[in-house]
Amino acid sequence: MYLTLIRHLPTEWNKKTWLQGRRDIDLAPVTEEFAKKIKQNKEILENKPFDLVLASTLKRTHQTAHLYGYFPETEGLLDELDFGPFEGVPKSKLLNEYGDKWIENPKELVLGESLKNFEARIAQFLIKYKDYHNVLIFGHGSWIRGLVSYVNYGDINNMNKIIVENNQCMTLEV
């Protein structure tokens, strides 16, 4: 199975480095730089016949998909990590509180949801869609990083050593 992943375009909270998690935030106005990157990514996507196009329940993923010309099915398993009390505050507060544990062993943390549950959602997603050949996903930073870590290392503990920028497009073979 091939999963092509696009992290949603930035929101105002992304620009402020605030954690969004499950907060349903609109996209910020699309800059010329991001419009150019959308065009570049669309050229890559044109050559791929997708069996399925998915987005989380949060509007920022659907808004991004629409800017790409897609109208995805909604899949709750793709929802961003629930950061609980850290939603709406700078990411630095999470790092100050959990530091090395966030980087080296996030699976042991419980924020708004346990990261063990977050990992289970990723595993459940892979099982649910295993029979598809080529899937396009409009998703979130933590979810995509968690997936990459899970596929490459067998768990999510390396997710916070991976960088996924807004509007970044990548394809994983699972």
Rg calculated over all Cα atoms: 15 Å
The quaternary organization reads as: single chain
N-to-C SSE series? EHHEHEHHEHE
Distance separating the two termini: 5 Å
So how many helices? 6
Instruction: Name the helicity range.
Output: 25-40%
Give the overall shape: globular
Q: How is the biggest beta sheet arranged?
A: 5 strands, mixed
Strand element count: 5
What is the mean predicted local confidence, pLDDT?
97
Provide a short characterization of the protein structure:
The chain has six helices and five strands. With 174 residues, the chain is an alpha/beta fold.
Which structural traits does this protein have?
alpha/beta; about 15% strand; about 170 residues
Layout of strands and helices, then pairs:
Elements lengths: L1 E6 L4 H4 L16 H14 L6 E4 L3 H9 L5 E2 L16 H14 L10 H14 L5 E6 L1 H13 L15 E5 L1
Describe the structure.
Helix content is 39%, strand content 13%. Helix 5 (115-128) crosses helix 6. With 174 residues, it is α/β, with parallel strands linked by helices. The chain starts with a strand and ends with a strand. The protein has helices spanning 12-15, 32-45, 59-67, 91-104, 115-128, 141-153; strands at residues 2-7, 52-55, 73-74, 134-139, 169-173. The model has no long low-confidence stretch (mean pLDDT 97). The chain is built from six helices and five strands. Strand 2 (52-55), helix 3 and strand 3 (73-74) form a beta-alpha-beta unit. It has a five-stranded mixed beta sheet.
